[in-house]
Amino acid sequence: MDKKIIFIFFSIFLMFFNSKLMSAESSGSDITEISIGAEIFRWQEFGRDDARLLTEQGLRAYLRYSRNNHVRKSNGYLYNITGSLYGGDVEYDGQSQPGGHFSPADVDYAGLSGEFLGGYRYKNPLRAHALDLFAGIGFDWWSRGISDGVNSQGVAVRGLNEEYSIIFMRVGMGLEYRKSFWKSLWRAGVKYPLFTEEIVDMPAVKLTPGKSPSLFFSYRFQMASGHGLDKGTFFYFVYDSYRFSKSPVVTTGSLLVHQPKSRMDTVSLSIGRAF
């Protein structure tokens, strides 16, 4: 799928739903959030009988922007529009071929993502907490550059570059707790890729990793400040993941190419400001 088409589609999608929500109600609870943080990243691939083929892991940095109304204190609709930039170098440990051991210096990642979530908040009038139900759709694009290296037999192995394009959906629920001087927001649910595409430069081939559900969890904590309980500094913890089953085999020249079963897990911690 052409990246321009993906960008135009999501731009129209986000603008349409944002305008609908804004026109439907004006609760005065809209805020902007900007946060920066680091994540522990791990990517694994598996072959026959789930034998591990490779593991990539290390730290990546990210910058996140969000516009939402999750500070609302009454029953009503919720929305969250999020955009992120991320990247970093991680270590690679895996096979370049059956029986080979390939250890390049690093794997370079760079990517961007965007997401729209919509839902509803049920406020408990007797206690200082609320239940959120939500669902959303988003896109994720990243490049993955594996550097050259030498395998365990002393043979030089050329690296490669890949680009992933993912459209996904997620559904879940959350709980907000409010006290006089702090508040927290817990969220968890299931994520599922609707569209997957992987472009490899050597050999030049386009693959479609299989689709499997995965889990996510987040926790946001904020102390009261001079701006009240809804604006100021916050801390944000997130666990997110992807699960891809083996892709169909593609023939390119005399080669049969596929993407093995793959798993991605990230655990991140960030600090941000709400205003």
Q: Would you kindly provide a written description of the structure presented here, covering whatever features stand out?
A:
This protein has 275 residues and is mainly beta. It has a single domain (3-242), classed as OPCA outer membrane adhesin/invasin (Lipocalin, Beta Barrel). It is built from 1 helix and 15 strands, in the order H-E-E-E-E-E-E-E-E-E-E-E-E-E-E-E. The protein has one helix spanning 3-24, and strands at residues 31-46, 52-68, 76-94, 107-123, 129-146, 149-150, 156-157, 160-178, 182-201, 204-207, 214-223, 232-244, 250-252, 255-257, 261-274. Strands 1-2-3-4-5-8-9-11-12-15 form a 10-stranded antiparallel beta barrel. A two-stranded antiparallel ribbon has the order 6-7. A hairpin with a 3-residue loop joins strand 8 and strand 9. The radius of gyration is 21 Å and the shape is elongated. The model is unreliable at 22-26 (pLDDT under 50).
Quick structural gist:
This protein is mainly beta and 275 residues long.
Secondary structure elements and their pairing?
Blueprint: H1 3-24, E1 31-46, E2 52-68, E3 76-94, E4 107-123, E5 129-146, E6 149-150, E7 156-157, E8 160-178, E9 182-201, E10 204-207, E11 214-223, E12 232-244, E13 250-252, E14 255-257, E15 261-274
Antiparallel strand pairs: 1-2, 1-15, 2-3, 3-4, 4-5, 5-8, 6-7, 8-9, 9-10, 9-11, 11-12, 12-15, 13-14
The CATH homologous superfamily corresponds to OPCA outer membrane adhesin/invasin
**Main beta-sheet strand count, sense and barrel state:** 10 strands, antiparallel, barrel
CATH topology: Lipocalin
Arithmetic mean pLDDT: 86
Hey, roughly how much beta strand do the residues contain? Answer: over 45%
Determine the structural class based on helices, strands and strand pairing.
Answer: mainly beta
Residue stretches low in confidence (pLDDT < 50, at least 5 long) are 22-26
Q: At CATH's second level, what is the architecture? A: Beta Barrel
Portion in helices:
under 10%
CATH class: Mainly Beta
The number of distinct helices, counting runs of at least 4 residues, comes to 1
Counting structural domains, the number is 1
* Element-level helix/strand string: HEEEEEEEEEEEEEEE
Which word captures the global form?
A: elongated
Estimated radius of gyration: 21 Å
Oligomer: single chain
* N-to-C CA distance: 37 Å
Number of strands: 15
As laid out across the biggest beta sheet, the strand order is 1-2-3-4-5-8-9-11-12-15
